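The protein record minuted underneath.
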Amino acid sequence: MKTFIYSVPLYRMMNNRETEGSLTGGIFTGLKIEVPKDIRELLIPGEKVLHAVRQARLEQAITPDSIFVTTHRIIVRRPTTLGLRRNVTDYRYTDMANTRIEKGLINSSIYIDMRFLSEECCLKGIPKKSAVRIFRTIEERIARTRTGLPLSVSEGAEDPLQILKVRFAKGEITKEEYLSMKRALEEL
């Protein structure tokens, strides 16, 4: 687990896409978000962000956490000092043991027991629709590390259409996304 602490200038924070939108957006459900530049800079070569969500504001009213599930780890960005500073913590799949999900009416929480830490990784206030997909991705990534399978899809020798079919069957993507991606792959 690595923790990075850094300051973000106020003018940059105010112009950040993530802070755009209504003040009430995401109060109850959390939001899907774009991957900000500071997180993209932390990614290692070949690592891709699979899910990016911001915690529901009910959990932390002023500065909700942003959660990024990648091919190699989970990154939690926690704003502090009213958003002027941010703590970034990563949790590697190799260090994860057991997982559980608590589904709520509006949002859900995922709890992950860490093998070498006394405290668990808590991903609270995740949008309900995204929580199951995120949970499945985490479970799959933990299983891949235990069996020695490659973490990145690009490292495997699988057919892209087959991967797309599996993602659709698992419920990771909707029918519309599946058809759109299938058309794009067939045009190549």
